[in-house]
């Protein structure tokens, strides 16, 4: 039997199976998070967020070319499908190289120096098949394989370089073997233009080299390991960071000191680096220093691969619509590559969260391209600050360092059990590191993949959400997870509840033990790969708590390494089986049982929560938002999921690119404000009050409110005048600080905005003639904060400038903005579907009173038409499409706005039939499979189902009573299940969630009251009976006192 041919054939079959699975389950269009941005940037080669992924963008563009349209920039609805297919195929190729990696290591264990026997070939192929398919169906990797994110392609390059070093190992004694090392270096350089995670293979690669080329000793092994870490640091810092810094220093010198044009200095620096490397290459060859010669070649090819970072600089100069960080020169490219926009965290030495800043110094400057005396010039626009903290609150290996976010500080204290003024100790620091950063943010993710997952709701350590489980009830209950089978349908049947019974974990541990017992060197290599792509990432990232999303994708490399051990695990299982069933029969039995027990089980459990083939939610959510806006509108959004799908629709599919999207998360940065001054696609530029010099760099990063005694605080000042005042250079408009400097301030928080007359409003379609008697055109509002940051000032500037132009252009705010981002304009916001339009008036009277938290008033006719005739639902109307928790949060606005606002308003107007129609429409569009009436979500207690039932009941018709009863009963069933699950927890869990149980009971009681008030006594009596029964259970289980 020709081992090589069999290995190639079965490897390709395994890769084909994985590719088929991913192509079958991939999302057919844009996904949430960064996918919309990546698709947009790939389609037109635009500039994504730092540190960028230029090579990945170019790969995506190649696939998008086959969709048509990219050559001319014409819209294409198929580009997302093809780019997602790229991720699927890259992931399939990852499995291919994983298979060959496992078979290489398995062959070394079974037949290191000879052609393997038929039985050995069978076992080696079985190892590759089981390990490859186990990783195919693993939770984290499968998620990234079916969308247009970097992690699938990044995983491919990780698999490729690790496989390549094993190929080198096979031929290391051949004459031209070290070409593999140069190839690996080039792949590492290219992979930097995808994601930096690939660099973490370097220490493992170094160990393969050492064990093959040298006689291993304990000291030599340690030295080789340290050398691998030094090499990793050299590439990470010396190449990726300091090469651009070196070029930027030269360019700054040549431009500002020598009066030359931009880029000349950078070009000189690049030529110097090239000349130095060529000289070193020739010198090493002349001296016969083979290792140095090979090393220099490898460095050169890493740099060649890294050169893809010239693409963002080139494309930024084309003023593309998406131009994040605007890296159009080498100085801004440094900030781009180093992710300066996102800040940094201490690694080896730093402060505790309760440490105060005692000194601030300047460690560098920011610059902007300009002209001076007719020549190119880099103008200094800001400072890079270095903060010095209280020395007695500094420590080595700081883990609890983040004092910028009050929420993080509260979490540290709660997690560590610290009082309000209690100082953390070294023990607290290590307890957070071991328990949270390692336990919660790495081990939990690892166990999701190879033990089981509780649900898809992001948790923070409570028993309710985000934990790993096994599916073995006694063990899960012992760990405080309770009996999940007692929960309501929406939780019990959550597709992400995956129970793997520890089987993949056990098989992997067996493989680990088997490899270390048989070949300690390869065991060390695999473990180093596992360590650096898992634990080491957790140490390096030093993540604070309360992340906006789960971060399991960052640790996919460690699950990859463990899949190697899963494959090797069948070799130990075969040893046991051979004692019972000898020969080929025993080996076949081993492979079949392991395939069923691990990859088949994983596929069965994971398929339903990874199949996105019928999901269009991100696209339809963006479509609904854009179609809610009037032509030529300005739309303020916030965050990734509110923005990136909109970019995708505009940039790739060409839908509603007349709407100017403003991401308020970016609005506090000068380069983003700059871009508002230009027309993008069909969206006009934005007028603003301030000039470029007013917001450039550090200028007016914030303006404080100061109670100016010369201005009566009950008086409203023209917003246009205040915007000018806040950036004025006149010393009379500035305050003198203790240090003698002058700074701008906000003289009042009470503003008014110029508005057109009622006649002009009617003429321009802003209000109907019959409603003119119900409105006031006196737009007055109070700014809700003591400090206006640059993004706030920018919004006020835009509103003032557009109002001064006669309100000709509509202004919208997305529904997902944090409350104070509406600037205090709440009364003047008109709800149109799922967005709010800023109007130059408010209603004096209303047919219904707003409930707490509701903003402004409702455009009933437009909203009704949007919900009934315009909005699309992305598959949520089906029962066979899975939506994770972040997806389900998107549905909240539909359910809340349809029931609380539009249907309630229609009911108050006496339009009961329309109220029922919109309630039925949304209820059928959001199936219980997609968005069940659960009492809890990621955001906490979810009352949308309660209000939906209440609105049905409030309509009062027979159809309304029937709808109210249906929703109330569905919700009650889930509330009852939640209480029963809480009662099944251990003492700590019951204590932690006892208030949740009481909220559940209170909601059931309230549902009964609503039903009774509506005349549905049958349902009310059912609720009352449930309340009595549950009260007795809770008094016993939670030790509650009778009321």
Which helices and strands occur, and which strands form pairs?
Blueprint: H1 3-25, H2 35-44, H3 54-65, H4 79-110, H5 118-136, H6 139-145, H7 150-171, H8 179-192, H9 202-213, H10 218-239, H11 242-257, H12 264-287, H13 290-306, H14 310-316, H15 330-337, E1 349-351, E2 357-372, E3 375-389, E4 394-396, H16 406-416, H17 426-450, E5 452-453, H18 473-478, H19 489-492, E6 498-499, H20 503-518, H21 520-532, H22 535-541, H23 556-578, H24 583-610, H25 617-628, E7 634-637, H26 640-651, E8 660-663, H27 670-675, H28 692-695, E9 702-705, E10 717-718, H29 719-726, E11 734-736, E12 742-746, E13 750-753, H30 758-763, E14 775-776, E15 779-782, E16 787-789, H31 790-804, E17 811-814, E18 829-832, E19 835-838, E20 842-843, E21 857-858, H32 860-870, H33 885-908, H34 912-925, E22 936-937, E23 940-941, H35 944-955, H36 958-983, H37 987-1013, H38 1017-1037
Parallel strand pairs: 7-8, 7-17, 9-12, 10-13, 18-21
Antiparallel strand pairs: 1-4, 2-3, 5-6, 9-16, 11-12, 13-15, 14-20, 17-19, 18-19, 22-23
Helix pairs in contact: 1-4, 1-5, 2-3, 2-26, 3-4, 4-5, 4-6, 4-7, 4-23, 5-23, 5-24, 7-8, 7-9, 8-13, 9-10, 9-21, 11-12, 11-15, 12-13, 20-21, 20-23, 21-23, 23-24, 25-26, 32-33, 33-34, 33-35, 34-35, 35-36, 35-37, 36-37, 36-38, 37-38
């Amino acid at each position: 039997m020709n081992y090589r041919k069999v290995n190639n054939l079965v490897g390709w079959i395994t890769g084909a199976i994985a590719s088929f699975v991913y192509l079958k389950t991939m999302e057919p269009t844009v996904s949430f998070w960064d996918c919309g941005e990546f698709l947009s940037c790939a389609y037109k080669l635009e500039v994504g967020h730092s540190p960028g992924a230029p090579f990945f963008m170019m790969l995506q563009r190649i696939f998008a070319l086959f969709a048509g349209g990219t050559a001319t920039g014409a819209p294409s609805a198929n580009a997302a499908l093809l780019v997602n297919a790229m991720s699927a195929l890259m992931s399939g190729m990852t499995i291919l190289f994983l298979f060959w990696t496992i078979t290489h290591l398995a062959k070394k264990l079974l037949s290191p120096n000879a052609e393997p026997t038929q039985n050995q070939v069978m076992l080696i192929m079985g190892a590759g098949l089981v390990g490859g398919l186990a990783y195919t169906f693993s939770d984290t990797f499968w998620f990234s394989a079916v969308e247009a994110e970097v992690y699938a392609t990044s995983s491919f390059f990780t698999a490729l370089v690790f496989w390549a070093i094993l190929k080198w190992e096979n031929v290391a004694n051949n004459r031209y073997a070290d070409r593999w090392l140069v190839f690996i270096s080039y792949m590492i350089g290219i992979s930097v233009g995808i994601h930096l995670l690939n660099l973490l293979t370097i220490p493992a690669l170094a160990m393969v080299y050492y064990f093959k080329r040298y006689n291993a000793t304990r000291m030599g092994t340690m030295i080789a390991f340290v050398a691998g870490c030094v090499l990793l640091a050299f590439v990470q810092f010396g190449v990726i960071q300091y090469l651009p810094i070196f070029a930027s220093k030269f360019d700054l010198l040549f431009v500002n000191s020598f009066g030359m044009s931009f880029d000349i200095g950078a070009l000189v620096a690049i030529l110097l680096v090239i000349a130095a490397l060529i000289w070193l290459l020739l010198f090493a060859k002349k001296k016969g220093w083979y290792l140095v010669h090979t090393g220099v070649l490898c460095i050169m090819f890493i740099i060649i691969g890294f050169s893809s970072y010239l693409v963002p600089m080139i494309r930024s100069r084309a003023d593309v619509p998406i131009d994040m960080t605007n890296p159009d020169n080498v100085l801004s490219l440094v900030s781009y590559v180093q992710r300066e926009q996102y800040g940094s965290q201490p690694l080896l030495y730093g402060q505790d969260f309760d440490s105060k800043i005692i000194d601030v110094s300047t460690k560098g400057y920011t610059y902007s391209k300009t002209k001076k005396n007719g020549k190119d010039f880099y103008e200094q626009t800001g400072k890079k600050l270095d903060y010095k903290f209280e020395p007695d609150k500094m420590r080595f290996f700081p883990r609890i360092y983040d004092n910028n976010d009050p929420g993080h500080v509260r979490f540290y204290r709660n997690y560590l059990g610290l009082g309000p003024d209690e100082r953390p100790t070294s023990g607290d620091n290590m307890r957070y590191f071991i328990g949270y950063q390692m336990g919660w943010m790495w081990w939990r993710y690892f166990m999701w993949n190879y033990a089981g997952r509780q649900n898809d709701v992001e948790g923070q350590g409570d028993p309710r959400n985000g934990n790993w489980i096994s599916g073995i009830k006694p063990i899960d209950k012992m760990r405080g997870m309770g009996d999940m089978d007692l929960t309501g349908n929406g939780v019990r049947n959550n597709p992400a509840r995956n129970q793997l019974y520890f089987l993949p974990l056990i098989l992997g541990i067996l493989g680990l033990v088997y490899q270390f017992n048989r070949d300690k060197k390869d065991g060390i290599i695999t473990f180093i790969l596992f360590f650096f792509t898992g634990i080491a990432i957790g140490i390096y990232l030093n993540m604070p708590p309360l992340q906006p999303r789960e971060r399991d994708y960052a640790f996919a490399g460690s699950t990859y390494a463990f899949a190697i051990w899963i494959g090797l695990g069948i070799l130990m299982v075969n040893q046991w089986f051979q004692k019972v069933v000898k020969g080929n029969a025993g080996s076949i039995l081993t492979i079949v049982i392991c395939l069923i027990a691990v990859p088949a089980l994983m596929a069965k459990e994971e398929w339903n929560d990874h199949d996105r083939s019928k999901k269009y939610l991100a696209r339809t959510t963006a479509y609904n938002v854009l179609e809610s806006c009037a032509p030529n509108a300005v739309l303020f959004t916030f965050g990734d999921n509110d923005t990136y799908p909109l970019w995708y629709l505009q940039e790739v599919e060409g839908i509603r690119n007349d709407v100017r999207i403003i991401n308020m998360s970016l609005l506090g940065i000068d380069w983003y404000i700059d871009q508002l001054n230009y027309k993008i696609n069909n969206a006009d530029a934005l007028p603003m009050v301030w000039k470029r010099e007013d917001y450039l760099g550090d200028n007016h990063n914030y303006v404080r409110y100061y109670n100016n005694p010369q201005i009566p605080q009950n008086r409203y000042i023209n917003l246009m005048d205040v915007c000018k005042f806040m950036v004025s250079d006149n010393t009379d408009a500035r305050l003198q600080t203790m240090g003698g400097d002058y700074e701008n301030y906000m003289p009042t928080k009470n503003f008014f905005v110029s508005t057109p007359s009622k006649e002009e409003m009617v003429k321009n379609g802003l209000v109907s003639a019959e409603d003119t008697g119900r409105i006031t055109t006196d737009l007055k509002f109070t700014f809700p904060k003591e400090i206006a940051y640059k993004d706030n000032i920018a919004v006020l500037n835009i509103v003032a400038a557009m109002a001064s132009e006669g309100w000709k252009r509509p202004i919208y705010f997305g529904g997902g903005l944090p409350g104070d981002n509406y600037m205090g304009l709440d009364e003047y916001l008109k709800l149109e579907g799922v967005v709010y339009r800023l109007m130059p008036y408010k209603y004096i009277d209303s047919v219904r009173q707003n409930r707490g938290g509701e903003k402004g008033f409702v455009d009933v006719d437009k909203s009704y038409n949007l919900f009934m005739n315009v909005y699309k639902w992305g598959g949520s109307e089906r029962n066979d499409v899975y939506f994770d928790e972040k997806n389900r949060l998107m549905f909240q606005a539909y359910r809340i706005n349809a029931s609380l606002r539009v249907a309630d308003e229609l009911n108050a107007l006496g339009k009961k039939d329309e109220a029922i129609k919109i309630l039925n429409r949304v209820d059928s569009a959001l199936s219980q499979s997609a968005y069940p009436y659960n009492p809890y979500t990621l955001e906490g207690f979810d009352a949308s189902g309660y209000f939906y039932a209440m609105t049905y009941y409030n309509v009062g018709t027979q159809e309304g009573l029937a709808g109210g009863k249906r929703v109330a009963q569905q919700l009650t069933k889930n509330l009852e299940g939640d209480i029963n699950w809480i009662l099944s927890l251990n003492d700590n869990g019951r204590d932690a969630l006892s208030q949740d149980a009481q909220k559940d009971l209170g909601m059931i009681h309230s549902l009964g009251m609503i039903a009774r008030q509506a005349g549905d006594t049958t349902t009310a009596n059912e609720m009352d009976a449930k309340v009595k029964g549950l009260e007795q259970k809770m008094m016993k289980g939670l030790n509650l006192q009778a009321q």
